[in-house]
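Now read these lines:
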Amino acid sequence: MTTIADELTIERRGHAGSAARRRTNFVIFLGPAIVLTVLFFVVPVIIDIAVSFTDLSRSLRISEFTTEQYEKVLRTDRRLSQVIGLTFIYVFGTLAIFNVTFGLILAITTTAIRNVSGSFFRGVWLLPRMSPSVLYILLWLWAVSPTEAGLVNQVLMQAFGLDAPLDLLTSAPVALIIISNGFIGASMGMIIFTAAIRGIPEHLFHAAAVDGAGTFAKIRFITLPALRWPISFVTIYQTLSLLVSFEYILLLTKGGPFYDTTVYALYVYRRAFESGQYGYGAALALFLIVIGVVVALIGWRFFDMERLLQRPRIEVH
């Protein structure tokens, strides 16, 4: 006959076994992710902080530990304010015009037509993202070539009677880097927004049609409210991505003319690897990390992500 003490012992063993299974599952499923995060995110930040307090240069010799790099960032680098202003214009312009707005327009348009046509159009729009960066920029360099062989100049001179070819790399470099990066960035928003629109129940659109709602009314009162979470995610993710990416700018304009298209991330690269000022580049990179964290927290607060990511109300044991 089982006593109360035996039942308590069995229950304790069951709880201990359940706790052991949870720890084992944690190690198996989250252990590799934690290790990779520490190796590729935490350790590089620690190394960056350490290097930023040195005078490490192209000679790869450290003669002293100093705060001179931070004094240079905060006081003596006069070009830094121009770079920060350009970065704000570049990030805001690319995000607002292309990554969110144009991506949303593409998603709404391609889901409003037949599935086959919409899928084909989305596939075509994804081709630049699937192409190597060098190939994509080579096409842009041909398109904006300041000669009569450039695609843009061919159109302007033959269709609109332009007398001389335009040099957009010199006359409008900022607009050029925004457009070239925007065409790539819009495809990601298009895919995420398309998936979200496909997930909206069809009966909502049928009910709205019965009530006499037109196309724009359906978009305003059904589609856009259902896309609050995807729009928030794309905005925050693409903002952080634009802050740290510069490969297309480096390939297209090399940051020029002079420093006219040098965004903050490219400025860090040029200071560290072109000028050989590794300590100063590390200090600039640390500020970029801080800016990214601040932007993420502001986006989290502004979009009320905590409420969008609230825990499920149904508990599963």
In short: The chain has a mean pLDDT of 87. The CA atoms of residues 82 and 260 lie 9 Å apart.
